[in-house]
Design a protein that fits this description.
single chain; 196 residues; mainly beta; UDP N-Acetylglucosamine Acyltransferase, domain 1; 12-stranded parallel β-sheet; 34% strand; globular; Hexapep; Trimer_LpxA-like_sf; Transf_Hexapept/Carb_Anhydrase
Length: 196
C-alpha cells in the first residue's frame, strides 16, 4: 500500500494518475490529472502540503516535503527527474528539475525553466521564466532556447504517455527464464538526449 493517512488527512489522487506501488504518499498531498509518480518516490504531506498540478511527473527516488504550514507545489507539466529533493518550494509550469537536484524552502522557479542535474538551489532563490539554472549554489546562467524548451516539453509528454501505459498494462509478474520468450519492443515513443 502506497497511501497513508495522518491526523485524519488523506491524500487526494485523480484516477487518471499512476502511483508506483513502492512510492509513499502521506497525508496532505494532492495529485492532479495524468501525473506519474515513480518507484520509491516520497511525497510527505505530514507537515505542509504537497500539490502536483496536472501532467506532472515525479520520477524514481524523488522526495517532496516542507516545514510545518509550508507548501511544495509543482505546477502543470512539471518534470522532476530521478532523485531530486524539493522542500517547501514552487516549481513553475512546464519546468524541468534535473537529476539529483535539491531545491530548498521558499525558492520560486519560474515557468519553462530547466535546472541542470546535481544543482543546489538555496532557500529563497528566485528564477524568472525560461531560465537555465545550474550549479551549487545554483545561478541563472542564461535564457532557455526554443529548441531546449521543445525538447523538455516532449520529454514530459513521454512521461504522460508512460502514465497511460502503466494504467493499462503495469502489473506484478513472474520473470521469464529465457530471453527468447520476451516481447522485444516496448510500446514507448522515441526520445533522445538533447543536442547542443
Amino acid at each position: 500500500m502506497s497511501f497513508y493517512e495522518i491526523d485524519g488527512v488523506r491524500p487526494i489522487i485523480d484516477d487518471s494518475s499512476f502511483v508506483h506501488p513502492t512510492a509513499s504518499i502521506i497525508g496532505h498531498v494532492i495529485i492532479g490529472k495524468n501525473c506519474y509518480i515513480g518507484p520509491h518516490a516520497s511525497l510527505r504531506g505530514d507537515y505542509g502540503r504537497i500539490v502536483l498540478e496536472d501532467g506532472v511527473n515525479v520520477q524514481d527516488g524523488c522526495i517532496a516535503h516542507s516545514f510545518p504550514g509550508g507548501e511544495t507545489r509543482i505546477c502543470k507539466n512539471g518534470h522532476i527527474s530521478h532523485g531530486a529533493v524539493l522542500h517547501g518550494c514552487v516549481i513553475g509550469e512546464n519546468t524541468m528539475v534535473g537529476i539529483q537536484t535539491v531545491i530548498m524552502d521558499n525558492a520560486e522557479i519560474g515557468a519553462e525553466c530547466i535546472i541542470g542535474a546535481l544543482s543546489y538551489v538555496k532557500p529563497g532563490f528566485k528564477a524568472p521564466d525560461r531560465s537555465i539554472i545550474h550549479g551549487s549554489p545554483a545561478e541563472v546562467k542564461r535564457a532557455v532556447k526554443d529548441h531546449e524548451l521543445e525538447w523538455k516539453t516532449r520529454g514530459t509528454q513521454v512521461y504522460q504517455n508512460l502514465t497511460e501505459r502503466c494504467l493499462k498494462s503495469f502489473r506484478a509478474c513472474q520473470p521469464l527464464n529465457d530471453e527468447n520468450q520476451q516481447k522485444q519492443d516496448l510500446d514507448a515513443p522515441s526520445f533522445k538526449p538533447i543536442k547542443k
